[in-house]
Amino acid sequence: MNSPADRLVDLLDLEQIEVNIFRGRSPQESLQRVFGGQVAGQALVAAGRTTEGDRPVHSLHAYFLRPGRPGVPIVYQVERVRDGRSFTTRRVTAIQQGRTIFNLTASFHQPEQGAFEHQLPPRIEAPAPESLPTVAEEIKGHLGALPEQLERMARRQPFDIRYVDRLRWTADEIKDAEPRSAVWMRAVGPLGDDPLVHTCALTYASDMTLLDAVRIPVEPLWGPRGFDMASLDHAMWFHRPFRADEWFLYDQESPIATGGRGLARGRIYDIEGRLLVSVVQEGLFRPHTPRHMGTPTPDA
Out of 207, 212, 245, 299, which one is annotated catalytic? Predict the structure, then answer.
């Protein structure tokens, strides 16, 4: 059986069915909708496949318009907006069963020597990732065993996720909590040497925990969930080359939640503290009934 990392690479390997049209698999999962990071990652693959390959992506801006259905293929139509001397722009529309579910615009930049560089230092000093428990280990430690459904999910999870601060389990533990979260992440196995695959894999991962920061002051990340959540839009800026199968620190915060929407910002650093990627996402939060069990890494 292929490893979760192999399956992620396979998921990002789209079928080209026309010059600017690609088809992506959507695995049959026990989810109500397709994971947003999957759609964003596949759309970015489609955009990248229509370029010459010598210009890394430097930014993307995306809108989640409708929930995708697990198990149903997604078609990605690419519009070649611009091929300039330094920048290439692509617009991608994701279609499932005749309906647009997602839009993405991506910009690619010819590498060049900058006139200057600066970077603010990381906000936190995080312990080494290997010194922290995995999410599965934290759940086992609290519950005594991993529920069967989560056991299956953990075996399929393509990323190793380790929370810098332990998971909070009770209302008392979230009292006075700031809307901040941080995790170490890396793919659970090698992803090959194609830079586009690593960029799209990290795009996939960027949607896994970002809205945690919005929820932390309101409810424990594990336990009965009082809200339906959905990603509304997602933006990323890629500053430096990286590998998604090496440890990166994802520092997340929510500056505001109001009107049923919560804004989250993320900064992704390598293990040496160099800023690799900046992320911004807005999510929709609505109370629901009945309450149901959530997961520490919510699907958007």
Answer: 207
